[in-house]
Structure formats: C-alpha cells, structure tokens
C-alpha cells in the first residue's frame, strides 16, 4: 500500500487521502503492536514480524513532511539587475560561501557574487567579474574549490576565475585561463564531480569540449554527436559518463573518453519544447519534457534498456520548462518550473511507482531563476535538507526546506555522508581512464571548510596540443596576439571594430544610468 502514489493537480485531495491511509496504517500498527507485544518477551523473532507489519502498511519515508518556508525579510538581497536572457539558464550559482548571479552590465558580459551573509541593497558600484565581450550565459562553481568559478559566454569562450577569499573590492577582469575552442556561443559549463580541474562546456555549435583547466587544453572534443542544440548536460556520480538532452528530442548517454554513445532514446518526450536530463546516483537517468499535447512530463530511464521508460508521468499543461535539482543523499528531486511559483518534490525509489510525489512548496510570485545550495552548505542544526535561492526580477529570496524534528541532536538519518570538497582524482588520472566516487564527509558537526589551494594553470607548449582552437568564432572574440604579417591589416580592422564596440558600450552605459535615474524619479513620484 503506497499512500497516494502519484496524482498531481489533485494534490489537495490526495494529501487528505495520504493522511487517511496513514491513519489506517497507524491503527493497524498500533493494534498489531498490542497484539504482538506480549510475545516479544518470549520470541524475539516476532519483533521483526511486528516491524514488518508496519513496513508492509506504509512506505516508510522521512520526507513525507518536508516543510518549506522563506527566510525573513532581512535575508533578501535586492536591487540586482538580473540579466534575463531567453536562454533557459538558472542565472545564478551557489556554493557554501557565495551566491553568484549573471547581471545586466553595459551590454552584458558580467556576473557578480555576494558572500552568503550579505543582506540588503546592492550598490550600483558593486564590483563585478567582467572579462567576457558578450553576455555570460552560464556559470558554475568548482566543487573542489569554493573560490573558483567558470563562466561560458556568447563570445564563444569559457573563462575560469579565481576570486579572493573575502570577495572583491575591485572588479575582476582577468581570468586565470581563457578556454577557446567553440565556434558559437557557450551555453553550458559543468565541472567534473570528482576529478580536479576537469571542466565540460557545450555550445550552440552542438559540440561538447572537455578541458584540462590546469593546462588550458581541450582534451576531448565531441563535435559529431549532436545534430541540434544541447539543452543540458549532466555527469554521472563518478564522472565516467555524461547524459545530454538535445533539441533533436534525443536523450544520449555518452562515454566521453571512448567518444562513443552508450545508449540513446529518440523522442524521449515527444513535444517540441525543451527537455532536461540528469543522472541519478544509481545510474538511471531522470528526464523532464513535454508530451505532444504540451503536457509537462517526467520520466525515469535505465540506460541499459532505453526502449521503454521505467516510469513516465504527466504533470500539467503549464509551459515553463521543469528544471530538476537532485539530492543524491536523500534521493529527492525538486522540480522548479520556469515561471511557476511552486517547487514540487519527489522521492525516487527502486520500487513501483519509482517516482513518488511528496509535496509542493507554493508561493505567490513566479520564479525567474533558481539557485541550489550544495549539501555541505546546509544548516544541519535546523534540520535543513535543501536551500533554494529564488530569483525575481530584481531581488532574490532564499527558501529553506526542512524536516522538522523535536530533538536538538544531529539527525543522522537525514544526513548520510555527503560529497565533500576534496577531489578524488587528478585531471590526468581521469583522462587516462580512472574513475572514482566522490570522497564523502560527515556533516555531524556542520561543514568545516579547509583551505582552498590556488588554481595554477601551467600552459603546455601550444604546438604540442591538439589543434582544437583554430575554428573561427562567429561573434567577436578576444583579439589574439599574432606575428603573422598578413594579419596586421586584419588587426587594424579589428581594433577599429573594438573601438566601435567600446563606444556603443559607453552609450549603453549612459542610457542605462539615465534609465535608472528616471526610474528613481518615477519611484519618488509614485511614492
Ligand atoms: C542540467 O540540468 C540540471 C537540472 O536542470 C542542472 O542541475 C545541471 O546543472 C544542468 N547541467 C548543465 C551543464 O547545465
Ligand atoms: C562508475 O559508474 C559507472 C556507471 O554507474 C559504473 O559502471 C562504474 O563501475 C563506476 N566506476 C567506479 C570506479 O566506481
């Protein structure tokens, strides 16, 4: 007997049903306890039988009563100019120390980050990270160093930044390394979960490049696997495989080092709207997408047999792309629809119906983007099992998910050991074919950060490396130093163009200032 199972849209009714079934279950368990209790003294085995009775009646889950709430008002950060593109990105990235967010900045090209304890208004002159010549499309914090972040941009480059421990006092324009190799904008950057300095990027050139950031080299280039835009890439738990969801409606499981497609599913979701695919800890793939009738769907797949899904569920007919956030420790998936005002969460188990609807956190305003805190950044004393950062047009609000407990003690059932910041492998080991699971840490006394080592990039002789960076970028790329006499003329032209761009940027900046002045005046008048 599985409580309500999976019935969305009618969740009110089934919440009631859930309680009803629980009460019946409790009744049975209490009566059976009564019935069997005397025999416990005589026959210890009956104790197990008694326990089994309860398990038989209710699927045990700690997470039936996950409870979400907003933090108090003074935890908002506001007056951010978030740069909302048509791109389906999260627009922000969170680690245990910083909250980074892509912003509108004189024509795009920047993001900034705040220490997590920051609250209140953000000054216009707040320092930014602004080295790209086109808008930033995706950012990702390094899981092995909380002061390193990668960014992908419309200017066809990927940049990796090292930031000072206490944040910035001046804007940062010099990345540690610029990774060039894509011929169109780079919409996805994703660090390897367990190997140090391994970074994946995917661009609108339908190529995936895997970089050794420590040497600045593109070591794997998967440019003939996707026939259309890549919506999303996800590493598996030990980083041996990746899965992708693409505009050609295929979900692919790829072995990047063998450069081969291990499994694929055509029309994983039949609708034309964007899909997402993520790896779960057990190796299965979870996808979201749309049906032919434009209903939102979720599905679970086993890469060993992708013909039929393990589970496929229809949700509703909203049109926001469902962005999944996954916690491998608790096996909970949180689905945040773009433009929805709710977060729905599901527990994934290995028994039917596999995807169990748990609950919905609802709020009034729709979310424009969402950040998700890694497990080690949570407050274990408050029994917090997830923290989100909900982006609005101009502000951000943290949302906390907890499993309320009466005791003050550490709840080790809620916090199994979780992925720590230590890398299990060096980049070279991974490229040679080694795999390793994440190195786990206990959160018993909270997360105690160690010292981050500096990111050092030792460039190898460029002539030794594979010629992946010779494609021409369609957009403006950063001028390269060249000794070729024939290109001197080109360089002059490029200079001219860059000057022009600068003057356009200045104009935009001035306009920007004027607009915000006018807005302020308007606000005064309105008040
Ligand atoms: C893929 O999507 C999932 C869920 O939306 C997200 O957690 C992950 O970061 C995405 N990966 C990339 C590379 O964008
Ligand atoms: C890594 O994960 C893959 C797929 O889940 C599995 O087949 C492989 O055995 C794992 N390797 C190690 C070293 O854990």
Automatic annotation (TrEMBL):
This is Coronin. Residues 55-120 form the DUF1899 domain. One of its GO terms (biological process) is endosomal transport. GO terms for cellular component: actin cytoskeleton; endosome membrane; flotillin complex; lamellipodium; lateral plasma membrane. InterPro entries: Coronin, DUF1899, WD40/YVTN_repeat-like_dom_sf, WD40_repeat_CS, WD40_repeat_dom_sf, WD40_rpt. Keywords: Coiled coil, Membrane, Repeat, Transmembrane, Transmembrane helix, WD repeat. GO terms for molecular function: actin filament binding; small GTPase binding. WD repeats lie at residues 129-171, 179-221, 223-264. The chain crosses the membrane at residues 20-42, 54-71, 97-116. Belongs to the WD repeat coronin family. It comes from Cercocebus atys. Coiled coil: none annotated. It comes from the Eukaryota.
């Amino acid at each position: 007997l599985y409580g309500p199972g999976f019935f969305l849209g009618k969740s009110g009714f089934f919440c009631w049903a859930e309680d009803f079934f629980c009460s019946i279950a409790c009744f049975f368990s209490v009566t059976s306890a009564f019935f069997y209790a005397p025999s416990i003294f005589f026959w210890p085995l009956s104790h197990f039988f008694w326990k089994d009775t309860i398990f038989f009646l209710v699927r045990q889950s700690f997470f039936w009563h996950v409870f979400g709430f907003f933090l108090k008002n003074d935890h908002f950060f506001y007056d951010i100019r978030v740069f909302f593109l048509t791109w389906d990105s999260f627009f922000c990235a969170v680690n245990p120390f910083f909250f980074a967010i892509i912003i509108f900045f004189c024509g795009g090209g920047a993001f900034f980050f705040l220490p997590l304890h920051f609250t209140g208004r953000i000054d216009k002159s707040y320092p930014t990270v602004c080295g790209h010549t086109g808008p930033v499309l995706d950012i990702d914090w390094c899981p092995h160093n909380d002061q390193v972040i990668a960014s992908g941009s419309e200017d066809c480059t990927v940049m990796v930044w090292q930031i000072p421990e206490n944040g910035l006092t001046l804007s940062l324009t010099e990345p540690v390394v610029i990774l060039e190799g894509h011929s169109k904008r780079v919409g996805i950057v994703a660090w390897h979960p367990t190997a140090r300095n391994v970074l994946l990027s995917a661009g609108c050139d339908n190529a995936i490049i895997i970089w050794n950031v420590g040497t600045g080299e593109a070591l794997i280039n998967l440019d003939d696997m996707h026939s259309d835009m890549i919506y999303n890439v996800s590493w598996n738990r030990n980083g041996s495989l990746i899965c992708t969801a693409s505009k050609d409606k295929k979900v692919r499981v790829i072995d990047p080092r063998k450069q081969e497609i291990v499994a694929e599913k055509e029309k994983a979701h039949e609708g034309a709207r964007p899909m997402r695919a993520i790896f779960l800890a057990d190796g299965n793939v979870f996808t979201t997408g749309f049906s032919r009738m434009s209903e939102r769907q979720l599905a679970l797949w086993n890469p060993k047999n992708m013909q039929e899904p393990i589970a496929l569920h229809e949700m509703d007919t909203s049109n926001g792309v469902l962005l999944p956030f996954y916690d491998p420790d608790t096996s909970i998936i949180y689905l945040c629809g773009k433009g929805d005002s709710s977060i729905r969460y599901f527990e994934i188990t290995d028994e039917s119906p596999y995807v169990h609807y748990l609950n919905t956190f609802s709020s009034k305003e729709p979310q424009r983007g969402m950040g998700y805190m890694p497990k080690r950044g949570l407050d274990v004393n408050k029994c917090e099992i997830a923290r989100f950062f909900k982006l609005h047009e101009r502000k951000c609000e943290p949302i906390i998910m907890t499993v309320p407990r009466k005791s003050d003690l550490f709840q080790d059932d809620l916090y199994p050991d979780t992925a720590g910041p230590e890398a299990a492998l060096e980049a070279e080991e991974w490229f040679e074919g080694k795999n390793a699971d994440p190195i786990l840490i206990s959160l018993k006394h909270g997360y105690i950060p160690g010292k981050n080592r500096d990111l050092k990039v030792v460039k190898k002789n460029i002539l030794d490396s594979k010629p992946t960076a010779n494609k021409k970028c369609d957009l403006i790329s950063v001028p390269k130093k060249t000794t070729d006499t024939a290109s001197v003329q080109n360089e002059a032209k490029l200079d001219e163009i860059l000057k022009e761009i600068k003057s356009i940027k200045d104009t935009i900046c001035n306009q920007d200032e004027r607009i915000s002045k006018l807005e302020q005046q308007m606000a005064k008048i309105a008040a």
